[in-house]
Amino acid sequence: MSSSMGKIVKITLFGESHGPAVGCVIDGLVPNIKLDLEHIEKRLSQRRPGQSHLVTSRKELDRFEILSGTYDGRTTGAPLTVIFPNTDKKSEDYDVAKKVFRPGHADYTGFVKSQGANDPRGGGHFSARLTAPLVFAGALAEQLLLSRGIKIAGHIASIGMAKSLSLSDFSGYNEELMALDDTKYNIFESHQKQLLEEVERAKDTDDSVGAVVEIAVFGLPVGLGSPFFDTVESQLSYGVFSIPAVKGVSFGDGFDFAKKKGSEVVDAFVLDHQGNVKTNANHNGGINGGITNGMPLLMKCVFKPTASIGRAQETLDFDAGELTHLEIKGRHDPCVALRAVPIVKAVTAFTLLDMIMMQYGVAYNES
Amino acid sequence: MSSSMGKIVKITLFGESHGPAVGCVIDGLVPNIKLDLEHIEKRLSQRRPGQSHLVTSRKELDRFEILSGTYDGRTTGAPLTVIFPNTDKKSEDYDVAKKVFRPGHADYTGFVKSQGANDPRGGGHFSARLTAPLVFAGALAEQLLLSRGIKIAGHIASIGMAKSLSLSDFSGYNEELMALDDTKYNIFESHQKQLLEEVERAKDTDDSVGAVVEIAVFGLPVGLGSPFFDTVESQLSYGVFSIPAVKGVSFGDGFDFAKKKGSEVVDAFVLDHQGNVKTNANHNGGINGGITNGMPLLMKCVFKPTASIGRAQETLDFDAGELTHLEIKGRHDPCVALRAVPIVKAVTAFTLLDMIMMQYGVAYNES
Amino acid sequence: MSSSMGKIVKITLFGESHGPAVGCVIDGLVPNIKLDLEHIEKRLSQRRPGQSHLVTSRKELDRFEILSGTYDGRTTGAPLTVIFPNTDKKSEDYDVAKKVFRPGHADYTGFVKSQGANDPRGGGHFSARLTAPLVFAGALAEQLLLSRGIKIAGHIASIGMAKSLSLSDFSGYNEELMALDDTKYNIFESHQKQLLEEVERAKDTDDSVGAVVEIAVFGLPVGLGSPFFDTVESQLSYGVFSIPAVKGVSFGDGFDFAKKKGSEVVDAFVLDHQGNVKTNANHNGGINGGITNGMPLLMKCVFKPTASIGRAQETLDFDAGELTHLEIKGRHDPCVALRAVPIVKAVTAFTLLDMIMMQYGVAYNES
Amino acid sequence: MSSSMGKIVKITLFGESHGPAVGCVIDGLVPNIKLDLEHIEKRLSQRRPGQSHLVTSRKELDRFEILSGTYDGRTTGAPLTVIFPNTDKKSEDYDVAKKVFRPGHADYTGFVKSQGANDPRGGGHFSARLTAPLVFAGALAEQLLLSRGIKIAGHIASIGMAKSLSLSDFSGYNEELMALDDTKYNIFESHQKQLLEEVERAKDTDDSVGAVVEIAVFGLPVGLGSPFFDTVESQLSYGVFSIPAVKGVSFGDGFDFAKKKGSEVVDAFVLDHQGNVKTNANHNGGINGGITNGMPLLMKCVFKPTASIGRAQETLDFDAGELTHLEIKGRHDPCVALRAVPIVKAVTAFTLLDMIMMQYGVAYNES
């Protein structure tokens, strides 16, 4: 396995869904940061299961314990370790998975990779529960970015056939985006009804549905990233593709570029009122040649429909060597995107913090 | 900058468009490999400019010189260095870029990042010419994968409004894919006319057009990759997003997942005639939980329309501090995808080789 | 901070002397290893304080808890996390250190590095207690090396003026070395009295004394390591110099080479009875050009006398800005080497395991 | 192989003694540095062979060509590639080594590692000629450190039985050290005669002799380094042990600590006249707990006597499978240390620059 990400600020994720705890070690933090526990709790609560009938009913309180790296509530610069003890474990729900590989899940690939020695309970190390410590680390990174004037907005841009607004229409982090951050599912109030109806419909038919999450980052410095091989796109996609169920990542106009003419997507350089270089459009999503250009960074990622659905599916009984009908009784989300925005934000924040530390060092905020 | 990629097999890219040479160092190669120079030349020729009226007329012969790491035509295990001396440099074409930042290019971001010290001639280190040594390294990686039974197919899946076949319809590397590999532009013969018409149309209007490149990898072992953070998707997208003009990367059904129901995209596990585990569909593109499942790996990436177009564009004259009309006289591709397939293949091959060496070591081919 | 070591098999250390726990995450382990808990306990007991009047009386039972990465007593391949909860914390002993920097310790440098935010209790993250999880990881690595026929011997070669045997006199891991491994302090029985007398003498005068630890590794494959920059010496010294109090590392004849003639230190190649290439002497400590040559690997490292001594020392009261007399009441070892051999073995085993995995992959044991 | 060193500023070495060229890629340099070519040439000349009867007569002019990464004589921030074409290659001298492994050299280990595919001419990639690009990179790093007020002194502390001064007697970089930097062999004028007599004696008897090189670094910030695992000692020794013939590295009192009492080696903290924290002695060589304490950093490394000596040596004829007499006719140094000081300085400078960039970022010089 390779469970670490980052060059200067590094995170190492560990744990299994039904083991004693999941957690992470965050290394390379600057000392003397007072942890914003309120912000961390807010992000954790946005990811937390069990909060409505539209998300999995597994009830984890996501209580965490900091084992190292802080003193008097401040970082010391030594590795910060946080664990989330596992409390609500219903292993019996998953017993069937030991012999019958669930389609679309990592049961089979995890089994082969570990030569049969993997922890099969609840997906083991492959569980989405691992995203809890990831969100902790990301919330901390977000706090550090904020102190440098960098703000991250995120929302569900579409679910099934229902589309919401586009973050490309926002030139700055305004009150509407602040309000968005306080919504239950990170959906713009104006579009919540339509989007959730898609989830309800999937749930009512024992089905699930895909979605797109969109991120905008405001306030990044110009010049972040490298052409080969550490482009902004390379580094962000590296992290985002670790999030379970993500199958596509794009920047700016993304896959819409495929059908466009060059003359339709020109981001011409102009000067704004303060004399700063801007572009008069943002098809490139704030990135030229792999490097930030000062415009809002725009990223989209697609979440596939949850592979676990209530309906019976035909699949392989590996022991018996024959097909079988599998009915997954576990508690599942009909649309994982409802809890995914804080996770995408976390990966985005952590990656950008690491890139900034790599390129500018600790003194960035003062320059 | 961070100009290296890979953990066990590493590549470091260097050079500028109009400097003495571009090249790379490939480190971590196993010794005693006889270089398949014919294959390397084939891949280089597929990337080479100047071959038809549809691609840039810059004429580089792409002659390379190996400076280190081989003896008697075989790798020694020491770092292999290859350089491509620059011959056809027309700096005057690019003079205008020193003061006027071309929209959609890295002129502005490169200028800021380097504090004004960048080599502005032909994009300097940001030039697509850097992909020549990348293709060399990828061709070598492809040769090594082939000796392990792993084959990579790649083609242009769409240009503008014209669509070609889908590689998801191929269950193995067959004669049709072999023929594809010998086409001039890596387009299926059956669809070449439609796709190239899109390019002609763009060229005739001094414009450019976007495209999608699709890759399929056959013969990968089951179990390659990790859940956090080295998923197959993470590592491949990291490399592919370094290719100039790529703005989106997806796997399997990719962004089409957004509108789909879970019941529509089930890859049920079955046994094939030899008793091997397969899935009866491949919506997940050969990857479950970030790990290969033995089905063909399917990846798409989108290339934005070339930013340099023949038409005059309005942009900023940075010295004068005012808007100006920019006419780019350089020799440009109306559709970069026509030369991009060998580059995407190269990044794919190199990344997969590194992952295989990382996970299985040198003895993989014997196991 | 950078609290990780290793490329394929990685360890990340965390924790503070008086925080909730110290521990580590070990990533990159192959799956399906049954942990040899008896061996791990043996190594931990050799490092443990509080076992005789010659070592610090801090009584840690070194009870550990495995939080992740195992299932049914076997590794799963997912990150293995182990913590050692801190139990016997007497913070008051160390209170003085908050204002008065102890000479030879990291109080001052840790204070500056963390901008005053470090945990001052018991040295915080700088505590030698961090070596407990390191020994755990090393014992596990040693178990894996053993399954590949690689054995590590280690002992105290000298304390003060008293010298013991040299491991260069052993051509294989024999019964004498097995007996050595069961001694209380890793000192050859024949020399224990003289060496411990040096410690007694230091202790009786409220002083401390330096020592040399010597390591021999038998059974390494020929060809491990690289000339630039991953020589065997580079990688081992990198790890060994992380052990608190180590101030010098050498291989083979080490610093004795300084006074020698080339003709005196020739390791001529010969064939042994089985037709294997050997050298008729081992001045180079089993390494030529940074690469193992099949002879026993010989390494020495020097431990400085414990900086904390019972005597009053003059040092700086940082708050008052003037000199003061410091009497350190904490429980200290008069000779840290008495508990250091398992730590040096741990770093050696872990580093070699990582090098072997890097170079040969998981299949090494079968080749 | 692993031919790279560094985290932020990285060097990748390549080339073979008798191939087209040796060279390196330096990545991660800040842009806009005007190369101090005079300083680079000075360091290269101190390493260059062929300058007196006491060093090998191989005559390399060490002419270099910069292939990438500079524009108008300044760094651009893109990877800087420099090559040293090989000119004076006398392969015939080394022909014997193809079959007969020279004792103390990497002929055998390199042969096994490369499965017989290595370039045997002049040691191939194992040649000390690879240190030419290393010295180039180090000289550039030294220039950057100098601009931050950090100065590196280095000299030969002893050859055989003859000892020179100790750098621990210097509290700052004074005129005597400046004069030292201009001597032919980096030996204090006062001791040159005695030390060179040891070399003459070895040469006259067709023998070679060992030596110790000592380094002092003045002006380092307090707080550089980490406790686990990136101690200053770990990182410097990692680099220094890559230098051919180095078999031991130590800091401060080094192996002399072994015989000392704690009370004899106290570095008590005091305030100097400017109110800065200093220690009243420097037994720890400027490092406490793996972190710089503001005192001069003191490092020693031992060079074994050149393995190639004029005398006939008995060794193995691998093809014949029997012992043979080997007479090495190549041009060799009776004492490699005579050309080694610039190499040790180079590794020291490069490693410290990388550590500073890692910890403080580009803005360090302004803070």
From the N-terminal CA to the C-terminal CA of chain A, the straight-line distance is 38 Å
- What name does CATH use for the topology of chain A? Chorismate synthase, AroC fold
Q: How large is the radius of gyration of chain A?
A: 21 Å
Oligomer: homotetramer
Give the domain tally of chain A: 1
What is the name of the CATH superfamily of chain A? Answer: Chorismate synthase AroC
Number of helices in the DSSP assignment of chain A: 7
Notes on the protein architecture:
4 copies of one chain form a homotetramer. The first copy, chain A, has 367 residues and is of the alpha+beta class. The first copy, chain A, has a single domain, classed as Chorismate synthase AroC (Chorismate synthase, AroC fold, 4-Layer Sandwich). Chain A has 7 helices and 18 strands. A 5-stranded antiparallel sheet of chain A has the order 1-2-3-7-4, covered by helices on one side. In chain A, strands 9-8-10-16-11 form a 5-stranded antiparallel sheet. In chain A, strands 5-6 form a two-stranded antiparallel sheet. In chain A, α1 packs across α3. The radius of gyration of chain A is 21 Å and the shape is globular. At the A-B interface, β1, α2, α6, β11 and β12 of A face β1, α2, α6, β11 and β12 of B. β11 of chain C pairs antiparallel with β11 of chain D, so a sheet runs across the interface.
Which descriptors would you attach to this protein?
alpha+beta; 5-stranded antiparallel sheet; 23% helix; Chorismate synthase, AroC fold; homotetramer; 22% strand; 367 residues; 7 helices
